[in-house]
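Thread: Newbie trying to understand structure tokens

Hi all, I'm a second-year student working on a class project, and my supervisor (Dr. K.) asked me to get a predicted structure for one chain before our next meeting. I've only ever worked with sequences, so writing a 3D structure as a token string is new to me. If someone could post the tokens and maybe explain what I'm looking at, I'd be very grateful. Here's the chain:
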Amino acid sequence: MNGGEHHPNPFGVYVPGSRGHLPGIPAVPRDDHPLVPWAEEEHAGQWVDVDHVREQIEEFRRCLDRLPEMIMPHVDRGHLVVVTGPVGMGKTTLIHQCIHLAHQYLADLDEQAHGTPAYEQGRRPPRPVVAMTGGYVNYGNDVSWDERGDFAETPGINAAIRDKIAEALRGYFPGVPFDPVIDGGDVHKAFSAISALLTQQNCLLFAIVPHIDWRDAGGEVRGKFLRTCLRHAQSRIVLFVEISHQHPHTAHEVVGDLLPFPEVTHLSLGSLTPEDPVKFTEAVRGGHPAVDDTPPPAPDVAWELLDVRQLRKECFEAAERQRRQGGRVRVTAADLRAPTLDPAALGRSTAPAPARPPGQRSAPQADRRPAPPPDRRSALPPSR
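---
Reply by user tm_fold:
Sure, no problem. This is what the structure looks like when written as tokens:
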């Protein structure tokens, strides 16, 4: 892949739109970035079904089957998709993959309907629009801090998310007058006005709510926030919210009250399986088989301690070692260094976390406010 490019590492991920953005400066792939196939076509070929992600994709497909209900104003319900899982297990990538599927789904519907009497009369499938309120990597720092640099209260977070969505929609609908309610003080009414705007433009909004590192250990604040998101998911609005947890039962405590609602889809990620490193490396090099391949090594249970982000980074580094040595870049599971990390170092420990100074990421604390942003000087941003 990327033959002849500046940095031919098959495990590198190009930031969408980075190549050719500045003439004369070649883009360099990242070892740690979510896959965004709806914005970068090449990312679709880099996606690998590890941690049973395909099952979660199929669960989201069932959500799309409810499309007629989502776009009927008298039903007045869109959809809320809650993605849970440990840190680094690909939650943000899963969200982007779902949006990619939605684009394909709506394009297929449009193609099937094209030329029919209903299509000619203007009854057409909606056009997808996307609002990333935390960028491609889905950081929540811009919405979780107020102008004084203090932790924002939940109403302020909701208003900031609304502002990000409105900003994205103005980019999609240049010159279209917006109802002043969209920028007003009542956030719920603002989402109603956004819903009306989407109906007018025959669009379906996929809005990604940024990841916020809530500090309440019991999940009460996160639960209230999710219920607010459900209230905002009105007609033609699909909201994606990701919640990090260290154990599945924590996710159930946060999401459980919402599961009876048909407007809610819960996608859950877990840990790597011992076979996933082999599957990951074989998928990337699958288009270039060689007759001298040796059988893959027996799965190492130690890989269960790692996450998808660390697996990609380790594969990227193995490819870099091969590239520096001047040989072909062809990583197999046998080329990966065996993980030696303590589970506690990965945030998977059940022991209470010690107090931390501002700027460091760790397990949630018993606080009702979002945690401070990560110290980007000492750690790479996580790819969820």
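A couple of things are worth pointing out once you decode it. The two ends are 23 Å apart (CA to CA). DSSP finds twelve helices and five strands in the chain. Feel free to ask follow-ups in this thread.
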